[in-house]
């Protein structure tokens, strides 16, 4: 959290639209006074986070105690990673995965999610949402830590995991990649467990997420042991292949 840094509202410019109050996941604004933006928790503001400022359609927000760094050069808070120039209510759908070459769960979920987004996008845009669909390979433990990645695959809507609690089972594909035992995500729906979610599951989960408040994962995070095994095993196999000189995995 920031010290001596918080948003200040230009009351002459403010449109009292409530965008900043709805967006901020850190409790800086008094939601009881919405749509009027009243700062009640200045200590909750995150250093270098320009999220509410970038959302303000009137340009009415500045920051006391800001470093002067722009949002493009300052170390980013996770809640400022979304696009700053969109029309409509932002709806960011992010697909976080470990592998799209070998893992059947990641590949299958990717294909189903593509279909669901293609079907939902026209209706969502008609309803006033600015849909931004992104895919991010969690290729390194550093990326996993940046996104507070818990299990593969994960689907976020405005930073919120659409399936909530993580459930996993052994994944032979990712185990083959890492040369170690690795668990990947499974999904429960209507009393059944799926390694690859159905289109109905994804569509329902995305639509239910529309009214949820954006979340920010700026708090404490520790890379799960399961992912530590995956990254460590993958690194060992890569080093063995490189030392062999033939590009194979004969050293693993």
Please provide a written account of the structure.
It is built from seven helices and nine strands; from the N terminus they run βααββαβαβββαββαα. It has 252 residues and is α+β, with helices and mostly antiparallel strands. The strands form three sheets. It has a four-stranded mixed β-sheet with strand order 4-3-5-6, covered by helices on one side. Helix 5 crosses helix 7.
Distance between the termini: 43 Å
Strand adjacency order, main sheet? 4-3-5-6
Q: Unreliable segments (pLDDT under 50, ≥5 consecutive)?
A: 69-76, 81-86
Oligomer: single chain
Number of beta strands: 9
Number of helices: 7
Q: How would you briefly describe this protein structure?
A:
The chain is an alpha+beta fold and about 250 residues long. The chain is built from 7 helices and 9 strands; from the N terminus they run βααββαβαβββαββαα. The strands form 3 sheets. It has a 4-stranded mixed sheet, covered by helices on one side. Strands 7-8-9 form a 3-stranded antiparallel sheet, with helices on one face.
């Amino acid at each position: 959290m920031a010290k001596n840094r918080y948003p200040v509202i230009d009351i002459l410019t403010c449109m009292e639209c409530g965008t900043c109050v709805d967006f901020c996941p850190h409790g800086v604004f008094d939601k009881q006074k919405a749509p009027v933006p009243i700062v009640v928790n200045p200590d909750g503001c995150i250093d270098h986070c320009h999220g509410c400022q970038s959302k303000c359609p009137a340009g009415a927000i500045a920051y006391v105690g800001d470093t002067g760094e722009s949002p493009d050069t300052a170390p980013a808070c996770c809640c400022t990673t979304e696009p700053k120039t969109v029309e409509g209510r932002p709806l960011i759908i992010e697909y976080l995965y470990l592998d799209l070459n070998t893992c059947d769960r990641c590949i299958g979920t990717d294909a189903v999610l593509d279909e669901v987004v293609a079907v939902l996008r026209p209706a969502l845009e008609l309803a006033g949402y600015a849909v931004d669909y992104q895919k991010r390979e969690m290729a390194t433990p550093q990326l996993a830590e940046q996104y507070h990645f818990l299990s593969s695959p994960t689907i976020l809507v405005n930073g919120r995991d659409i399936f909530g609690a993580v459930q996993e089972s052994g994944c032979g594909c990712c185990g083959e990649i890492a040369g170690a035992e690795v668990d990947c995500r499974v999904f429960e729906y209507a009393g059944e467990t799926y390694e690859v979610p159905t289109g109905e599951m994804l569509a329902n989960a995305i639509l239910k997420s529309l009214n949820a408040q954006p979340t920010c994962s700026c708090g404490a995070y520790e890379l799960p042991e399961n992912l530590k095994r995956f990254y460590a095993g993958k690194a060992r196999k890569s080093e063995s292949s490189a030392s062999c000189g033939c590009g194979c995995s004969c050293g693993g």
